[in-house]
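Open question from group meeting: does this chain pack into something compact, or does most of it stay loose? Before anyone orders reagents, we agreed to write out a predicted structure and look at it together. Recording both the input and the output here so the notebook holds the full record.
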Amino acid sequence: MVEAEKIILRPIISEKSYANIDHNRYTFEVDPRAHKTMIAQAVEQLFDVKVVAVATATVRPKPKRRGWTRGRTAGWKKAVVQLAPGDKIEFFEGR
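Structure tokens returned:
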């Protein structure tokens, strides 16, 4: 089993992710090679909760420009994790 700290890279802090907390869903940036089972195991191991469902999405890079210089933002993978009723992750509760 791969280490959980290498699968879950960071939590996503946004208005949309905080709105999902009311429905017991938490959003994380994850390793692009991780699949749903690995993500669920990593969240359960890190936060000692029960994961019911995992939804993943690949966030595509966006073109950016600064003057004449053109570039792209980095693409990344996002996971929305649904926890069992009664479980919560305290890290997100300090809003």
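Observations to bring back to the group:
The chain has a mean pLDDT of 92.
The helical segments are 4-7, 15-21, 36-47.
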